[in-house]
Design a protein that fits this description.
about 35% helix; disordered C terminus; binds nicotinamide-adenine-dinucleotide; Dihydrodipicolinate Reductase, domain 2; Rossmann fold
C-alpha cells in the first residue's frame, strides 16, 4: 500500500550484512534507519556510530516487530533465522527485505512467501549480484534481444579457501556453499535468462574440506569443536533444465584446488557474453568475429546496496512494481533444494510448479480478468483502490494479483 509519509522508518536485523544494507538504506534521502536488532549489543553500538540519526537497540526481534514506529524490516541474520524473523515482521504489517538465500529450506520459503503476499506488504530480496551494474547491463542486453535466443548458460562461484565460519549458521544444516554463493550466480543467471520456469535438476554435492578443518576463509583453521559440527555442503554443482528448453549449469565451491572464480557465461543465437570480465562475443554472417570488452561508465548508484535500498524504498513509497520479490527467492530456493536433494538420491528431481496459496482471493479470478487488471495498472495507471472496486476484491488482493511476478497468476 502507498504510504502517506515521505520517508520509510526501517529496522535492520543482523549486524554483519546488515551494515552495508543499513548504510545504504540510511543514506537514501527517503530512508531512515530507526532501529537495530542483534543478539550482540556491541555490534549494534559499533554500527550505530556510523548512522546519521538516533536508533533504538533490540535484542529480541519479536519485541522489535511490535514497535509501531517501524515501517519496514531488513533481515540479515544467518540463513536459519531469515524466515522466523521475516514472518514476524509481515505478521506485524511491516514491509520486509531479506538477504540471500531466502531461507534454509523450500518449506520455510513457501510459508514466508505465502504469508508475505497475503499480508500485502512489499516483500523483496536483497540481491547484491543481480542489482550490480554488470548483471543489470547483461539483463538489459538480453531484454533488448542483443543475444538473440539465449539457450544455454553456465554460472559458477569457485573459491580456493573460502569457507566462512564466523557464525555456525554457515556450516550447520540450512547453510552450505550452494545456499551461500551458488545462490548469487544462480539467481543472476536465471534473471538474465528472463526468469524461465524450471523443470528438472540433477546435482552432485558434498563436503570435502570443511569437516577436515581445511579450506576456511583466509586459510585460518577454526577450532576443532567448530568444524566438527560441519553439516552442510562445501561444494555443489548440477544442471537445471527449463520449460523453454534452456539449460543452465551451475556450480559453487567454498574450497577447492582451483583458482578463485565468479562467473556467468551466456550462449545466445546472435551473441554470447562473460560477466567477469564483462565481455561480449559474436561472429557475423560473413564469419568476422568480434570480442568486445565493455567498460561500463559510472552508473546511477555507487554500489549495488544503494540500488537495492532505493528500489525497496520506491516500492514502498511510490508503489512501483518490485523487481526482486521474495517469490523469486522462493523459485531460486526450489532449484537449490532440488539440486541438493538430487545429490543425496543420485536421481533427477522434478521441480513442482508453485501455485497460488488456496486461501488467496485471486484464485477465483479468470486469466482474462487478471490480464485486464494488469493492463489497467500498467497502461492506465489505475490505483489499487480503483482496481479493487472494479473487480470486487480487496485492494490488498488487487496488489497481490498485480505484483505476482510469476508465470502462473491464477488456478
Ligand atoms: N552479498 C550478500 O548479499 C551477502 C554477503 C554476506 C552475507 N550475506 C548473508 O547474510 C547473512 C548473515 O551473514 P553475515 O556474514 O552477515 O553473518 P554475521 O555473523 O557477520 O552476522 C550475523 C549477525 O546476526 C546476528 N544474529 C544471529 N541470530 C540472530 C537473531 N535470532 N536475532 C537477531 N540477530 C541475530 C548475529 O549476532 C550476527 O551479528 C547470511 O544469510 C548470508 O548469506 C549476504
Amino acid at each position: 500500500m502507498v504510504l502517506e509519509k515521505k520517508s520509510v522508518r526501517i529496522a535492520v536485523v543482523g549486524m554483519g550484512i546488515g551494515k552495508p544494507n543499513g548504510t545504504a538504506l540510511a543514506s537514501n534521502p527517503r530512508g531512515n534507519v530507526v532501529a537495530l536488532c542483534d543478539l550482540l549489543e556491541d555490534r549494534m553500538k559499533d554500527f550505530a556510530k556510523d548512522l546519521p540519526g538516533e536508533v533504538k537497540f533490540y535484542t529480541d526481534y519479536k519485541e522489535m516487530c511490535k514497535a509501531s514506529d517501524i515501517d519496514a524490516v531488513f533481515v540479515g541474520t544467518p540463513n536459519q533465522w531469515h524466515v522466523p524473523i521475516a514472518l514476524e515482521a509481515v505478521r506485524n504489517g511491516k514491509h520486509v527485505m531479506v538477504t540471500k538465500p531466502l531461507a534454509d529450506s523450500e518449506e520455510a520459503a513457501q510459508k514466508l512467501v505465502a504469508e508475505a503476499e497475503d499480508a500485502g506488504v512489499v516483500n523483496m530480496m536483497s540481491l547484491s549480484t543481480r542489482f550490480g551494474d554488470t548483471c543489470q547491463h547483461l539483463g538489459t542486453l538480453a531484454r533488448d534481444n542483443y543475444f538473440g535466443e539465449l539457450y544455454y548458460a553456465r554460472a559458477r562461484s569457485v573459491r580456493r579457501n573460502g569457507i566462512p565460519a564466523w557464525n555456525l549458521g554457515f556450516i550447520k544444516k540450512g547453510g552450505g556453499a550452494f545456499r551461500d554463493m551458488g545462490v548469487h550466480v544462480l539467481d543472476s543467471a536465471w534473471w538474465i535468462l528472463g526468469l524461465p520456469k524450471p523443470v528438472a535438476v540433477l546435482g552432485a554435492a558434498g563436503a570435502k574440506f570443511g569437516p577436515r578443518g581445511r579450506g576456511y576463509w583466509n586459510r585460518s583453521q577454526p577450532p576443532q569443536e567448530t568444524y566438527e559440527q560441519y553439516e552442510s555442503d562445501d561444494y555443489a554443482g548440477g544442471f537445471i533444465t527449463f520449460e523453454n528448453g534452456l539449460g543452465l549449469q551451475v556450480e559453487s565451491f567454498w574450497a577447492s584446488h582451483q583458482p578463485d572464480e565468479f562467473q556467468i557465461e551466456l550462449f545466445g543465437t546472435e551473441a554470447g557474453a562473460t560477466m567477469s570480465p564483462l565481455r561480449l562475443y559474436r561472429t557475423d554472417e560473413s564469419g568476422t568475429s568480434e570480442d568486445i570488452n565493455v567498460n561500463l561508465p559510472p552508473g546511477k548508484y555507487s554500489n549495488s546496496w544503494d540500488a537495492i535500498a532505493d528500489h525497496f524504498i520506491a516500492c514502498i513509497l511510490d508503489d512501483v512494481k518490485c523487481q526482486a520479490p521474495l517469490r523469486h527467492g522462493l523459485i531460486v530456493q526450489q532449484m537449490m533444494e532440488g539440486l541438493l536433494k538430487s545429490a543425496e538420491t543420485g536421481r533427477e528431481v522434478q521441480i513442482e510448479e508453485i501455485g497460488d496459496q488456496p486461501k488467496r482471493g485471486n484464485t477465483k479470478m479468470s486469466v482474462p480478468k487478471v490480464k485486464e487488471l494488469r493492463r489497467l495498472r500498467d497502461e492506465e495507471n489505475w490505483t489499487y483502490d480503483e482496481l479493487a472496486q472494479k473487480f470486487g476484491i480487496s485492494d490488498t488482493c488487487a496488489w497481490n494479483i498485480y505484483q505476482r511476478n510469476t508465470w502462473k497468476h491464477v488456478k
